[in-house]
Hints:
The structure holds 2 protein chains of 2 kinds. Chain A is α+β, with helices and mostly antiparallel strands.
Amino acid sequence: MKKLGIIALLTIIGLNSAMAQLIKVDQEVFGMDCAPCAYGLERGLKKMDGLEKVQVSLNDGKAYLQLSVNNKLTLKKIQELVKSNGFSARNAIVTLKGELSKVGDEWQLNTDDETFTITPDTPANVLSALNTRQVTVKGHVKDEEDGNLDNSWKIQITEIL
Amino acid sequence: MKQIFSIAVVATLALSKALAQGHGPLYGLQTPTLAKGGVDFNVAAMSLATENDQSFMLRYIWSYGITEDLQLNITTPTMIDRLSDVPRTRGNSNMPANGDIEASVWYRFFSNAFGVGKRFESTAILSVSAPTEETRGGINVSNSIHGAISTGYASRTWYAWVGGGYQYYFEEGNEQLGDLPYASFVVGYRPNIFMGDYPKPDWRIFVESLAEFPGASSTEGQISAIDQRGKKVMLGPSFLGLYGAWGISFGALFPAYQEIKQGPKEKYRLSVNISYWL
């Protein structure tokens, strides 16, 4: 009975570790000019569930986020937090694990809560290598209007990991 | 016991959680507002010297960001040494150097973050004030309202803000303090040596200027209103240092031009401000 319990637990953990999710986000932040700005943003980000490591750079104008295993964070939540700190969230470089699917003529990567449509400027060799259902990729997520975020993004994949 | 505890809590807050105006200038109008849910405490030590006298006061400011564009502030003074003959001025645009308790709303109605560390923004301020003394410079002092608007540019290297405001005191016992239109202009610069990345200390210098045009006060028994307005231009440096959740700023303003119709001439204004962001 005890063995069965352990097997069930491991199965659950195994399933969870395979969930589609964001892994790493380098979020570009415009308008952040001073130490209290960076302090406030860093503190706000640290309060979000699902982050393992946060670093904010004033000179780069970026928030570097390492997400924890089995996190539920979305790029939308991250960008909304940037906005609530008075700044503008722009482009992001993300590493994510997603489910690959084709909708019409477009290829999409889906995490649990967000859809990343793969843009045509993704290099052909990268596109042709996307042949498994679940992939881990790194890519450049295009800027969306801060006031119009809706869990749908456009991504240029630069690397399959 | 409960009263003593309350006083101790208030005193501790007042002494340990000081506010400045955050990341902006000390005397001039500015535009930055707190993050949504952000809290900021400041304490400022301020002095204003006239030809014959000098005032000293501590001022506390508590600020809260309702949204990233809307901020509430309340500021209260502890007067240590009042002037018997008071020049007509707010002292600092963002917090009065007189004995007023002031509540204000800041609304950042325009913001355009267009680059790394760069943004244009504009903020409107609306305040109501209540005096802590019955007379100011021998004239009955009443509640007042204050409005201001400022616009500016912030970047990692340069800052600039320009703005203007107006304060109006209501009549009290047939007497009325003159109104106060004013304008402010501030330029800021962060030297290369302080371009180190967060969380390294972040310093910058401002050159601040205020132009004030105080209207004449009216007193009881006065036969006719005096239609004269003074002119005053104050100029000086201020410094702002930031480290993590803490900030300190200090600076002085000196008269560059004074044409005073009522009250004494000013010699200088001094301020030191400590901020803590919760």
